[in-house]
């Protein structure tokens, strides 16, 4: 579990997050959404200690530094080595990567989409489409088997088949990984998440039983929440 206690973040006189208290359940998928400027990315940066903040964040009752090697983040545009091939990126960025030697049989084939076939992985990443780069980042994350996985707008740029594959992989991965996804893709996340968090007006609301509210439709829950604010 990730526990956030009394988190406040301000930029000068502008407070973005005020006294946020959240619990991200272990080995579940939690989705954080909110309007533009509500503090979603700021919260993620605080959780990764990329921003200073007031308050406390614990990962299984430990500070981030104690678990940093177990944390993996995929941003909307994740950094990769453009002049290296997909295979070479995997070798460099997967902590336990064996000597793949361009042999796709050594990779877990369940992690490969139609857009990342062996012949694609042999090409330099600078030739990849945006969606292929995103898929390579996701593959690297899944091969690392992190204990904590953060996804920032990860569904952007993926086609329908890739989205459905990722949905299945995330559900499977959540058996032993705590997953926190940030974004606006309500329909995509509704079937697979376990907990919903909505950020609005410097605060946060946690909805643990969201599947019993408005039939688990995140868009409707989101509209209802904003209506009551």
TrEMBL record:
Domain ABC transporter: 2-226
Keyword ATP-binding: yes
Signal peptide: none
This protein's record includes keyword Nucleotide-binding: yes
PROSITE patterns, per database record: ABC_TRANSPORTER_2
Superkingdom of origin organism: Bacteria
UniProt xrefs under SMART domains: AAA
Alphabetized UniProt keyword annotations: ATP-binding, Nucleotide-binding, Transport
A GO MF label: ATP binding
PANTHER family in the cross-refs: ABC TRANSPORTER ATP-BINDING PROTEIN ALBC-RELATED (PTHR42939)
Protein name, per record: ABC transporter ATP-binding protein
Provenance organism: Paenibacillus woosongensis
Biological classification of the source: Bacteria, Bacillati, Bacillota, Bacilli, Bacillales
């Amino acid at each position: 579990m990730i526990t956030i206690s009394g988190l406040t973040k301000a930029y000068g006189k502008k407070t973005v997050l005020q006294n946020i208290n959240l619990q991200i359940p272990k080995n579940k998928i939690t989705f954080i959404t909110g309007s533009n400027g509500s503090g979603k990315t700021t919260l993620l940066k605080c959780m990764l200690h990329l921003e200073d903040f007031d308050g406390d964040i614990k990962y299984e009752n430990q500070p981030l530094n104690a678990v940093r090697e177990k944390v993996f983040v995929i941003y909307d545009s994740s950094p990769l080595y453009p002049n290296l091939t997909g295979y070479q990126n995997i070798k460099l960025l997967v902590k336990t990567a064996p000597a793949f030697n361009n042999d796709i049989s050594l990779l877990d084939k369940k992690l490969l989409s139609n857009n990342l076939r062996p012949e694609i992985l042999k090409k330099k990443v600078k030739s990849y489409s945006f969606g292929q780069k995103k898929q390579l980042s996701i593959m690297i994350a899944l091969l690392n088997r992190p204990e904590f996985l953060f996804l920032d707008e990860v569904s952007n740029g993926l086609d329908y088949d890739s989205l459905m594959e990722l949905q299945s992989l995330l559900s499977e991965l959540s058996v032993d990984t705590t997953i926190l996804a940030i974004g606006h893709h309500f329909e995509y996340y509704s079937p697979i998440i376990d907990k919903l968090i909505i950020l609005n007006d410097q605060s946060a609301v946690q909805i643990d039983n969201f599947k019993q509210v408005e039939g688990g439709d995140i868009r409707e829950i989101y509209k209802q929440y904003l209506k009551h604010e």
